[in-house]
Amino acid sequence: MKSKSKRAVGLKYNEAESSKAPVIVAKGYDDLAEAIIASAREHGVLIHEDPYLSEFLATLDLGQSIPESLYFVIAELLAYSYVLQGKVPDNWKQAFPGIEEHI
């Protein structure tokens, strides 16, 4: 039985252009996927493993924005990645005073 090939998809979200959706900046399978993941780790990019999400994202073209149907999922992942890095969005500070003390 042949094992599934490794897949990687990289997204970029530009905070300065918050009105725009994240775009696909890298994607590949097997050796290229390994290289994408290694480069992400090397540059301190957080990695989320989700075979279903990556399968869907891999169908998009490089430079293409994520579809609106994924906004909520990707927004949750971005928010969680900020928290993992000890960052708190300004609007969270206003909505949840003292949140920084718990991170």
From TrEMBL:
Gene3D superfamilies listed in its UniProt record: secretion proteins EscU
Keyword terms of this UniProt record: Bacterial flagellum protein export, Cell projection, Cilium, Flagellum, Protein transport, Transport
Keyword Transport in annotation: yes
InterPro entries: T3SS_substrate_exporter, T3SS_substrate_exporter_C
Matches recorded under Pfam families: Bac_export_2 (PF01312)
SUPFAM superfamilies in the cross-refs: EscU C-terminal domain-like (SSF160544)
Any one GO CC term of the record: plasma membrane
Example GO BP: protein secretion
Cited PANTHER family: FLAGELLAR BIOSYNTHETIC PROTEIN FLHB
UniProt family annotation: Belongs to the type III secretion exporter family.
Chain's role: Required for formation of the rod structure in the basal body of the flagellar apparatus. Together with FliI and FliH, may constitute the export apparatus of flagellin.
Name this protein carries in UniProt: Flagellar biosynthetic protein FlhB
The species this protein was found in: Alteromonas lipolytica
